[in-house]
Amino acid sequence: MNLFFKKYWPYIAYSLLTLSVTWPFFASSGFVFLLDGSWGPNLDLADSLRDGINSGLPLTAAIKLLSFVIPLAFLHKVLLSLMLFLPAVFMYRLAQVFMSRELAFVSGVFYMCNPWVLERFVAGQWLVLLGYAFMPFLVVLYLRLLAKPNRNNYFKFALMFAIFPLLSLHFAYISAGLLGAVSLVYLFLNRSSKNWGFYFRFLKYGGIALVFFMLVNSFWIFNFNDPTATLPRITFDDFRAYQTMSDVTWGPYFNVVSLYGFWNQEVVLPKDVNPFWWVNTFIILLFSLFGMYYLVRKKSPLAITLAILYIPVVVASVGLVSPLGEAFVQSLYQYVPMFKGLRDTEKLSGVIAFTYALCVPMGAHLMYLILSNYKAEYKKIFMGVLYAVMLFIPLASTFSIFSGVNGYVPVGRYPEGWYQAEAALRRDMDSGKVLVLPWRGYMNMSFADMHLISNPAQRFFTPELIVSRNEGNDNLAETHNSPWDQKIFQIIQGFETIDENIAYLKGEGVGHIMLLKEADYERYSAILEISQGIQKVLDSERLVLFEVK
Predict the structure, then answer these.
(1) Does residue 486 share a domain with residue 378?
(2) What mean pLDDT comes out for the span 237-253?
(3) Residue 194: is its pLDDT beyond 60?
(4) Does residue 475 have a pLDDT over 80?
(5) Is 116 helix (H, G, I), strand (E, B) or coil?
(6) pLDDT by residue (tens digit) across 218-240?
(7) 451-454 and 442-445 as β-strands: parallel, antiparallel, unpaired?
(8) Quick one: 238 and 359 in the same domain?
């Protein structure tokens, strides 16, 4: 038992830390409702293909298969837990390349418990967090390959590099950029110690890895520039819509280096209730500076790369809330291929969190060596104090994440009327498509404690739905200008009536109109109730279902 604990205590500690956050999810029955991550009892592969074949299809298919044996509500809670556990584990594995197990454990805690993770977790952006989690794993495989370039290490890296986009396209892109920079630094450091054969092999194996990558990802890459796909429809307005948030007192740059800045600010953050939150940032920056100096002196390609990239990443993460950041992002948008796919630049702050997780423990270690040389008799005291401070800082920076984000994240059941409507639609096998109103992509849902969440109807109902994709952001007004957007606007504004559009609805295959009693549903109800071309078939507490005659 003692040997088991000695070997696996970091993983046990990470598990307990994870459960201290997610245990309320498991203690309550029903689904977890999050801004971009609300699930329902229906996971339709066709829904994931509405923007064409995409990189997430294999992962969606895997979840669909698991849902046949594991309820989706429980599976969602497990995945949310893994989004906290995996970052800690993989950073711990990477950190052991540079430091002792005890210090590497702290690295894992830093990578798991920071404001960037908190904000993305509350938003339900589990795919972003999945990529963030696997980034240290990809990096450690690459470092092993550089240290020992044999076939085994090469195969492991090439395989992980190829499947990374299937897990998280955003962080596959970020990780590829990071590893590209590490490669340049590595080649520069070894420019005088290697012959031309070394460079040839480096390029050859890199080319083979790229071919393998293309083969694994060919099913979605060829669809990448399809007009119906997501990337061609992204414009610079998306960066305006999802621009980084500034801090009222400290400004945007300090906010970003503190790992805050996510565009959605509905949740109460630790800095909102702790007036001394900025002290943590200064301590982190101090330790990071020491740690970066220590690792750079050892000529670590990764540390040198992180040191070079730190300021550019901060400027890019700040983005459009700063004139310098806006000019920099504009240049990246114009000249760096596929950069626009990030949509919000604050995702890059994950690299800042990565830097802190590696450098802070090493900075504390260097500080310990300096203090011990100065007062050798207090070595154990210095070690204990520094270790306690390193553990305290990440936990203090994210204290509100525990116990289900301090009870903020709602867990519950869908309204009974939703199940009744699903049963009615299933009975009518020729029901056709269902137009879902209100015409909003995000709503404050009553069954989610009035939290703002993306419309979860497509994750609940099995018929094909026509739902709004409008985020309600003025910067994306031109983006959301589809024929359906225009038609609903005409009807809501009174320029047209439902009866005048019965032929249009039937032509589009619409057999039912579903009115969710959420948000501003009353204005839609007034229009639908007076229509002679539709018939009410269900009226429940939270939903009304009409059939198109």
Answers:
(1) no
(2) 92
(3) no
(4) no
(5) helix
(6) 888 877 666 666 777 788 888 99
(7) antiparallel
(8) yes
Identify whether the C-beta of residue 276 lies closer than 8 Å to the C-beta of residue 283: no
- For residues 88 and 82, give the distance between their C-alpha atoms in angstroms, rounded to a whole number: 10
- 403: how many CB neighbours lie within 10 A of its CB? 14
CA 355-167-151 angle, 5° bins? 80
Nearest of 398, 456, 490 to residue 122 by alpha carbon = 398
Looking at the fold, whether 393 and 450 belong to one and the same domain comes out as no
Whether residues 357 and 461 fall in one domain = no
Does residue 439 share a domain with residue 327? no
Q: Stretch 273-299: mean pLDDT, rounded?
A: 93
| 121 part of a folded domain | yes
End-to-end CA distance of the chain: 70
Rg, the chain, Cα only: 26
pTM score: 0.93
pLDDT band at 151 (very low <50, low <70, confident <90, very high): confident
| 192 plus 211 within the same structural domain | yes
Number of H helices, E strands in the chain: 24, 9
Q: Residue 201 sits in which domain range?
A: 2-32+71-406
CA nearest to 318, candidates 278, 352, 269: 352
Which of 357, 390, 406 is the last residue in one of the domains?
A: 406
Residue with tokens 């060596």: 369
- Does residue 390 sit in the same domain as residue 481? no
Is 89 inside a domain boundary?
yes
Neighbours of 128 (CB within 10 A): 23
Same structural domain, 490 and 351:
no
CA distances from 51 to 57, 98, 133, 217, 229 (A): 11, 43, 26, 17, 5
Residue 264: closest CA among 293, 248, 244, 290 = 244
Q: Which of 368, 389, 406 delimits the end of a domain? A: 406
49 in any annotated domain: no
- Predicted pLDDT of residue 411: 94
The alpha-helical segments, DSSP class H, found in 474-538 are: 483-492, 502-507, 521-529
Q: What total of structural domains would you count in the chain?
A: 2
What are the CA-CA distances from residue 55 to residues 65, 218, 277, 339 (Å)?
17, 9, 39, 16
- Can you tell me whether residue 336 is helix, strand or coil? coil
Dihedral sign for Cα atoms in the order 247, 249, 250, 251: positive
39 within domain boundaries: no
CA distance 126 to 408: 17
